[in-house]
């Protein structure tokens, strides 16, 4: 007999660090998230962070053998930024150099989705052992497992699908997805319930290693807490990993190309230098450390002293100004993204106060970032909640348990629609390629039919994409295997025609009309003097963190829909 208790396991798959939190769902009892706090190879770790590095290192002689997380040591040839490889088309801020992601993809030992699956699977397998240790006897093995996977709000639909594929390959089974800033909001605002009032507005800024995601919520109801998304979420590639890239450029400017090449070819050389910045300088830098030097030692090099650049005895004494040059462009990009959310919210609800900006995520924990944001938004409180780094995975557990704030509405961030042949109504229509329906003799022009538009309120309701097909008789079962395409656009106004460069393919939808063949209706004789058969159907979209599809006819669900992302 199955246990009445289930276990919810949330996986925060991050760019630089990942984490897992879990809770047992018990009938009639409140459950609280518990993060996994110990990881293989983390002995002697000073940080209180409960996460594990998102890094993997393969054995060149056997790519089924690999090390991950803290098991990877200085000098190991490792793959970092695994998550970013799943969305190589994501735009970067102009302050960052080209990352060569597309070139990197060609040099990987496996496809990016398989590397992500290896990492996710290893982390999950270890976490299960840790959770099992904390349960009595074989109790854990009797529990049904529910999985939640977090994804950036700025992720493309294709990247979300690849992330889901990786989780499936890793053995996680059926997975529910949630946007990272939404999970962070559920956790952070659940801790603030005594101070929340109806119509208050809160901006959630999830600044992680690779991405910065923003969502703004309004308190729709204070108790029990319900939140409504105010404006479409936004974000970009302004995460903390960009600081590492800018630090690398600063080192290259300091020591020159020849010594930089020598540093990177020295065992542990560059890895050691970067580790000093990553684990020490980047975390400690603050706006009140004006007189405090930050030291970088160049292991294995013999550099000429240059007192004017604070370089002596292979040590670089980084000053306040040096770090400002590294931090400021990315910090300014984060401030710009927050300001866009703030201004859009004030424009939509000018009399609803923006009470606070919550900073979560690894970069969101940085004190310099907080100080700069406070200086820019002097009339808004900036809060770095306790356990900011684990807010996302804890919030993801609460989302599945439904014991945190309820998100009652979301805002669409893209236009979604399909191509449709419509009647010619304008002069511009007449200039477009036309189609003569062989059955009806009507001349039509291809236009976009948008079913979801940017800023549209989404309440997890089903959105129906209407289609019809006509078939000459007799028709074969193979002819009833049909394909349609879903398109998207981020243009300010939804484009009218599909040949607009801002209209892009989202995914190909394959389904079978064969189970509904009895609903075929014989119609009038067409222009070719032959009868034809027609069926009308709906491809139904449910828009949550990712898109879900089903086939319906007259409100009844029929065969499954396979989505292949372009």
Automatic annotation (TrEMBL):
Keywords linked to the UniProt accession: ATP-binding, Nucleotide-binding
Designated name of the protein: Actin-like ATPase domain-containing protein
Organism: Apiospora hydei
């Amino acid at each position: 007999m199955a246990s009445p208790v289930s276990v919810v396991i949330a996986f925060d798959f991050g760019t630089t660090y990942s984490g897992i939190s879990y809770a047992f769902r018990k009938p009639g009892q409140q459950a609280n998230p518990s993060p996994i706090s110990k990881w293989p190879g983390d002995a002697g770790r000073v940080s209180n962070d409960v996460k594990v590095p998102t890094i993997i290192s393969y054995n060149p002689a056997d790519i089924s053998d690999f090390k991950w997380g803290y098991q990877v040591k200085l000098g190991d040839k490792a793959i970092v930024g695994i998550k970013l490889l799943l969305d190589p088309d994501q735009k970067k801020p102009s302050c960052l150099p080209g990352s060569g992601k597309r070139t990197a993809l060609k040099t990987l030992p496996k496809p990016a989705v398989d590397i992500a699956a290896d990492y996710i699977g290893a982390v999950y397998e270890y976490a299960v052992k840790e959770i099992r240790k904390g349960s009595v006897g074989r109790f854990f093995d009797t529990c049904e497992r529910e999985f939640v996977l977090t994804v950036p709000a700025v992720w493309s639909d294709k990247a979300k699908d690849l992330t889901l594929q990786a989780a499936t390959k890793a053995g996680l089974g059926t997975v529910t997805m949630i946007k990272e800033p939404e999970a962070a909001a559920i956790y952070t605002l659940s801790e603030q319930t005594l101070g929340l009032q109806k119509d208050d507005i809160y901006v959630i800024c999830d600044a992680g290693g690779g991405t910065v995601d923003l969502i703004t919520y309004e308190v729709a109801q204070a108790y029990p807490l319900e939140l409504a998304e105010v404006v479409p979420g936004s974000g970009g590639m302004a995460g903390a990993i960009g600081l590492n890239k800018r630090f690398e450029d600063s080192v290259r400017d300091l020591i020159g190309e020849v010594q930089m090449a020598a540093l990177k070819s020295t065992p542990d050389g560059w890895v050691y230098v970067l580790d000093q910045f990553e684990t020490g300088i980047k975390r400690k830098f603050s706006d009140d450390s004006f007189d405090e030097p930050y030291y970088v030692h160049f292991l294995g090099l013999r550099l000429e002293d240059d007192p004017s650049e604070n370089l002596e005895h292979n040590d670089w004494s980084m000053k306040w100004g040096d770090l400002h040059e590294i931090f400021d462009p990315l910090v300014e990009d984060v401030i710009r993204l927050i300001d866009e959310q703030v201004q859009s919210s004030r424009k939509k609800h000018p009399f609803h106060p923006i009470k606070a900006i919550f900073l979560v995520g690894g970069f969101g924990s940085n004190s310099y970032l907080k100080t700069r944001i406070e200086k820019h938004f002097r009339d808004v409180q900036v809060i770095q909640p306790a356990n900011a780094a684990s807010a996302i995975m804890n919030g993801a557990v609460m989302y599945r348990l439904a014991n945190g704030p309820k998100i009652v509405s979301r805002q669409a961030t893209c236009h979604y629609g399909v191509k449709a042949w419509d009647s010619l109504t304008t002069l511009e229509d007449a200039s477009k390629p036309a189609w003569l329906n062989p059955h009806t003799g009507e001349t039509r022009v291809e236009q976009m039919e948008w079913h979801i538009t940017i800023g549209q309120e989404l309440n997890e309701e089903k959105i129906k994409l209407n289609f019809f097909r006509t078939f000459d008789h007799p028709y074969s079962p193979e002819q009833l295997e049909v394909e349609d395409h879903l398109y998207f656009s981020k243009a300010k106004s939804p484009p009218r025609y599909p040949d607009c460069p801002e209209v892009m393919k989202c995914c190909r939808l394959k389904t079978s009309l064969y189970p509904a063949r009895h609903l075929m209706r014989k119609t009038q004789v067409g222009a070719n003097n032959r009868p034809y058969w027609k069926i009308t159907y709906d491809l139904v979209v449910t828009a949550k963190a990712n898109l879900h599809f089903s086939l319906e006819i007259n409100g009844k669900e029929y065969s499954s829909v396979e989505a292949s992302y372009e």
